[in-house]
Specification:
mainly beta, 4-stranded antiparallel beta sheet, globular
Length: about 120
């Protein structure tokens, strides 16, 4: 079982930046994809970005392309999400996850970290 712990959320003004971090521990050997999802109030949880652990290939939702960058540090078992040019509609709880780019494929979730973007 993989344990995931997010950090780095907070309150930022529109146009600002935040960097989210996710620390993975436990049985990470068979973790092939790690990523970020988010859930805004009253909305379904949605995919944001993912990265293939071994080859570093990245995937992004259209809403994240050009503004967000996902990266990983294999030695530290860390995944990061650099978010630039933030918009009020980016306000959500952001979850680190393993397994895939669809909610149904996720094998493990973190507890989530709140990101609030003020206008």
């Amino acid at each position: 079982q993989v344990q995931l712990v997010e950090s780095g959320g907070g309150l930022v003004q529109a146009g600002g930046s935040l960097r989210l971090s996710c620390a993975a521990s436990g049985r990470t050997r068979n973790t092939y994809t790690m990523g970020w999802f988010r859930q805004a109030p009253g909305k379904e949880r949605e995919f944001v970005a993912a990265i293939r652990w071994n080859i570093g290939r990245t995937y992004y939702a259209d809403s994240a392309k050009g503004r967000f960058t996902i990266s990983r540090d294999n030695a530290k078992n860390m995944v990061y999400l650099q978010m630039n040019s933030l918009k009020p509609e980016d306000t959500a709880v952001y979850y680190c996850a393993t397994g895939g780019t669809e909610v149904r494929d996720v094998a493990a979730w973190g507890q989530g970290t709140q990101v609030t973007v003020s206008s």
